[in-house]
Amino acid sequence: MGLLSKKDAALIKDPLADNNPITIQVLGICSALAITAELEAAIVMSISVLFVLGIGNVVISLMRNIIPSKIRIIVQLIVVAALVIIVDQVLKAFAYELSKTLSVFVGLIITNCIIMGRFEAFALGNGPWRSFLDGIGNSLGYGVILIIVAFFRELLGAGTLLGIKVLGDPIEKTGVYAFGYENNGFMLLAPMALIVVGIIIWVQRSRNKALIED
Amino acid sequence: MEHIELFFKSIFIDNMVFATFLGMCSYLAVSKKVSTAVGLGAAVIFVLLVTVPLNWLLDQYLLQPGALSWLGEEYASYDLSFLSFIMFIATIATMVQLVEIVVEKFSPSLYNSLGIFLPLIAVNCAILGGSLFMQSREIPTLGLATTYGIGSGIGWFLAILSIAAIREKIRYSNVPPALRGLGITFIITGLMAIGFMSFGGMLTGGDDEAPKEEKTVKVDSKLNTEDEKVIANNIKVNE
Question: For residue B93, which residues of chain A lie inside 8 Å, CB to CB?
Fold first, then answer.
């Protein structure tokens, strides 16, 4: 890490584990749960958030001294909305099928609390470079959880990863299916996302006792 | 009939929290006490009730492809739909600001108890989600849009009220330390979502939902153990 000072590196490292936006700060849960039935959608969503949060944090940080505090929410919303429109239009142009899968959830990046939360908590009080690192760190932390959840849901639910059949063919009974394994279609349904995230939180807090509440 | 159907559908089947996971952040953050949960739930119902019809009008007369034709023939080919995010969020932010001013004027005590959560409604994804679903599902009339708004608001209210009640009770249960707080709330919400899935066949008689039910049967044993754990914990505490 020759490029970054120790303090700056912490901005990227902390949100990945001990200060994770989803499991510790409780931000941006909605999209994390709704689009994790497929790994591909989760990856695209993480990249979109990375783009919006990274750039948005820099923009807000550059404007932080000229925004009147009374209307800052509206200013922040406009900045995010503009960035999200770019993402949405790019997705529609280059990955139309995928943008159908994500449906309204790309639009909902606007109200994703990670974005507002980081603007409020960090970008309004720090310079552009540190804000940029903070944005990258937090969206990576968000992406990690998204990808873990999507990995288990797609693997156990459909037996595929990124659409590739990794467990063999369920109809011709090859691979694991030859031993009588069945896809657990329930993993693809909405409630299991909540339970998987619950289990991730359980594992994380058992490993790091300092995070336990009460 | 159409209205009643949409009303119940948006409360139970397409419940904002349990079917589409919208508004989860404030749902998790504000559900520690029943009283604040009720206040926030009521505010969400109101804001949804106002913004969904307003955004329906915007969508119908400004944003849809060809919506500008009321201005004259030459405008009919314009497509402003890429502006919908900004227009919707502007309406919502304005309405939330308005609600804040009105509540502060007429009921300062409610205003103080809601505190920071009032402005946070503006970034509650359930509100924007309501408008975006209204747009993507192409709800045909203003009346139906209003019904949809109030229905999904009530659905959200119901969800946050029930989880707040459960969390007040669970304080007396013996939850594993690492699962306390956030973890157990996630798992309970998951179990509640499974419960709400059974409303799926309510309006259709269950015919086209049949494959879903088959899937649930397979994992029943797993669910039972989860339930049993909670029950066993309760028994332990009662003893």
Answer: 73-74, 77
Q: What average pLDDT is seen over chain A?
A: 79
Nearest of A110, A22, A104 to residue B124 by alpha carbon: A110
| Structural tokens at position B74 | 């030459």
pTM equals: 0.77
- Convert the pLDDT of each residue in A80-93 to its tens digit: 888 888 888 888 88
Cβ separation of A213 and B181 shorter than 8 Å? yes
Q: What are phi and psi of A20, to 5 degrees?
A: -60, 135
Torsion sign (Cα): A140, B185, B134, B48: negative
ipTM, 2 decimals? Answer: 0.78
How far the first Cα of chain B sits from its last, in Å, is 51
Distance between CA atoms of residues A16 and A137, nearest Å = 7
Residue in A112, A190, A205 closest to B183 by CB: A205
B31, B163 Cβ separation under 8 angstroms: yes
**Cβ atoms of A141 and A130 closer than 8 Å:** no
Per-residue pLDDT reduced to its tens digit, B172-192: 888 887 778 788 888 888 888
